[in-house]
């Protein structure tokens, strides 16, 4: 029997058209590869799938077609993420909810008593504000680094490392009160607070990467749940911190929060040790490339969603930073009354976040929803001072109504941004991989952290120059501008979808033409291969040149 290599040599020795020789070589190599693959399978390969060569989905890994055949051994031969059952998904959601709750507590735990302790040591108000604002600045710088580290180290390692860092630094922040020198105390506060922010940024970025990776069509709903838990942490932490401070002094609130983080870290580590709970990307060293960043930045929808996240964070943080001084000067409102106002507004945010997340996951008109929520949020921002454009006199009830209206609709404005960025990134050519999910998560939270940094700084400057009502009017105009942008995107989105479908159809047609051309070349190559094989076995016997038969020799 003629081997594939000898057959290829015979084919190229014959008078074949030059166009068909590459196709024949490809077909020959393909047949050789398939025979070697069959040999490897018969020898007992371990990379097997559960669908036994059939087109039915694998019960372990959800692959659409078995790549190697054989019986299921639990090895993912297709590279698809494992299908999680409902119980594991709930356990993972509980761990991520706990991380977001404690991260929210971390932001607002020291609000009631740290300024008092620092002022008792002779620290200025500007320095105290710097201790608070350095947290957002460190988060801004650490979020892109965390997004880049997730595909390299694995999402589980980044999340656990960030949570451990935040827990240890929280315990250290409670022990800083034992430092007698004021200068060393403030310097240590800045350093520990920045490291604490790095850990929180890593944990938060990893959490939302897991949401994008494992919750599929429920990304918007899960984002709303996590934002609700974060808001609960922001609302409850000052009250709990004040009670713990009254019961045990400066150190007890930080020790309690740090211990809770360590307990959650232990539970998360125990959960990650179970089979199938490590998630995709654990140990996959596929870094985020500049090409992915360029493709992400080429989408107009991604820029719009990042701008909405930035504007919402800036408006929110600027209002929270300056409302206390305005309420004290205008209404002689003390911290207790203002705390009730903030609690009511944050409670409305926590309740509506889940509703907006649920609704955003089911509506087809996401940008229209965002536009309406941005409009209502802008109206609430104008009513709080109130704005000079409205001609209304300030009142406590108007301030409360504006705060509640602003907080209730802010979640509906920016919660759909993260799942929309995931979909837009896939529409422009990025695959649904861990590196893409980490890149989108990092970009979203970088813009949000940038708003947290710019908002109080710009808001404080505007409040000092023109007053609190003018400052809130400027941020309301920014919110209204984003409302117009999202409305324009909502109107242009049907045209963009038709254009995208047309491009996809053209690509499919080109792929079909290429496949048909390849199949035709393979058929021709197979025909010439059979023809050459027939010539090898049916070629008439001929004598070599110069050979003389004995019957032609003369008789002596």
**Helix and strand sequence:** HHHHHHHHHHHHHHHHH
Q: Determine the CATH superfamily of the largest domain.
A: MFS general substrate transporter like domains
Low-confidence stretches: 1-17, 19-84, 277-284, 549-553
Largest sheet: none
Whole-number tally of structural domains: 2
CATH topology assignment of the largest domain = Growth Hormone, Chain: A
Strand content: under 5%
Structural class: mainly alpha
Shape: globular
Please explain how this structure is put together.
- There is one protein chain.
- With 556 residues, the chain is mainly α.
- The protein folds into two domains: 88-273 and 281-287, MFS general substrate transporter like domains (Growth Hormone, Chain: A, Up-down Bundle), CATH 1.20.1250; 290-502, Growth Hormone, Chain: A (Up-down Bundle).
- The chain contains 17 helices and no strands.
- It has helices spanning 4-13, 20-42, 86-108, 114-120, 125-153, 155-175, 182-214, 219-248, 251-272, 290-297, 300-331, 335-360, 366-383, 396-414, 417-427, 434-466, 468-538.
- Helix 6 packs antiparallel against helix 9 (251-272) and helix 11 (300-331) packs antiparallel against helix 17 (468-538).
- It is globular.
- The two termini are 46 Å apart.
- Mean pLDDT is 79; it is low at 1-17, 19-84, 277-284 and 549-553.
- Keywords: Membrane, Transmembrane, Transmembrane helix, Transport.
- This is Int-mfs_transporter_33.
- InterPro entries: MFS (IPR011701), MFS_trans_sf (IPR036259), MFS_Vesicular_Transporter (IPR050930).
- Residues 30-56, 500-556 are annotated as: Disordered.
